[in-house]
Amino acid sequence: MTGPLTDIRVVELGTLIAGPFCGQLFGDMGAEVIKVEAPGTGDPMRAWGRGLPVWWPVIARNKKSVTLNLREPRGQELLRELVAHADVLIENFRPGTLERWGLDYDALSAVNERLVMVRVSGFGQTGPYARRAGYGSVGEAMGGIRYLAGDPERPPSRVGLSIGDSLAATFACVGALAALHDRERTGKGQVVDSAIYEAVLAVMESTVPEYTQGGTIRERSGAILPKTAPSNVYPTADGEMIVMGANQDSVFARLAEAMGQPELATDARYADHVARGEHQDELDEAIAGWTAKLPADPLLDILERHGVPAGRIFRAPEMLTDPHFRARDAIVDVAHPVFERLKMQNVFPKLSRTQGAVRWPGPELGEHNDEVYRGLVGLSIEELETLHKAGVV
């Protein structure tokens, strides 16, 4: 076991991304994560992926899988027994589901007052929308990010990832770690209520006060941030596109030197952040005219020598061959029974003394039933077999 959370045990309920990604983060940092899945079916993520079911090995890495039917009274009893040995419980059912099963926080904290319960949902546990079904796409829309995503001439787009779910899970993990810290002082756990729409809202920068104080509604702007220049995607002579950001005054001066046009830095149109924002289009056009004359490699070399942030737009193939990715082990090979040399992103962030690791990929359904139910809960072989035949585990 490696990582800073090797003394923490997590029980993970729920499916898909919003709850399980929180569990992945805990497992990455060394926690023992026991994932509870429905007998026979398991988490739908087991079948997800483009072409091959390779998402499960990532989101369920470092977890142990047990099966348990939470709709059965005996299954609910077994969960209470698991909770008695847990530090954290993660769930992302629709609010009210655990309450119907008699597994609400009051009931579980009566078993273990030190328990931290992490609840991830579309709209949170309270309020008029709490009981609504709330997928990440809806939370992204209500949180504001969907309105800003895409080309200004087209309807709102989306990031090509489940960013709302992942944000809610990340905030849930932060909240759980804060609650565990508080528990060290008070001896008591608490509920962490992470709503997808609020997690998205949290990263919406100054969009709310821009409206309340100045009446400005930020609009879709494609590849740029309005009034922040230069910061855009620029063409090269060999057909590649690079991203460059030189909107800070000192950095723009270095870009002007790199372009062989140092006078741009003192031109009244570009001399400071506000002026460059007012002349954003013409400035981008001038920079694109320069970059388009140079192939990507020498262009990036020039920008690097002048200290101007710039880089290629990476896909998976570029990530796998990039020397910086390799030097920092950003992508690792993970042994897998089906996929040879399975590659996936490593554990982030890096810690200097207690670094986490990908210890194993997503497990088989119920792979750890015997270890957990016999070793932790204390069931006998006969009891476990009886529960299996009854469809409880």
Structure description:
With 393 residues, this protein is an alpha/beta fold. It has 2 domains: 9-203 and 351-389, Rossmann fold (3-Layer(aba) Sandwich); 231-314, formyl-coa transferase, domain 3 (2-Layer Sandwich). It contains 18 helices and 11 strands. The strands form 3 sheets. A 6-stranded parallel sheet has the order 3-2-1-4-5-6, sandwiched between helices. Strands 7-8-9 form a 3-stranded antiparallel sheet, covered by helices on one side. Strands 10-11 form a two-stranded antiparallel sheet. Helix 1 packs across helix 8 (163-186), helix 6 (136-143) crosses helix 9 and helix 8 crosses helix 9 (196-202). The longest helix has 24 residues, at 163-186. It starts with 8 loop residues before the first strand and ends with a helix.
Measured between the Cα atoms of the first and last residue, the distance is 27 Å
CATH architecture of the largest domain: 3-Layer(aba) Sandwich
Secondary-structure element string? EHEHEHEHHEHHHEHHEEHHHHEHHEEHH
**What is the total tally of β strands?**
11
Mean pLDDT: 97
Q: Which residues sit in consecutive blocks of at least 5 with pLDDT less than 50?
A: none
Any idea what the shape is? elongated
Helix count, DSSP H or I runs of 4 or more residues = 18
Round the Cα radius of gyration to an integer and report it: 25 Å
Strand content: 5-15%
Number of domains: 2
Strand order of the largest sheet: 3-2-1-4-5-6
What's the story with the biggest beta sheet? 6 strands, parallel
Instruction: Look at the structure and name the CATH superfamily of the largest domain.
Output: Crotonobetainyl-coa:carnitine coa-transferase, domain 1
CATH topology of the largest domain: Rossmann fold
**What is the level 1 CATH name of the largest domain?**
Alpha Beta
Fraction of residues in helices? 25-40%
- Specify the structural class: alpha/beta
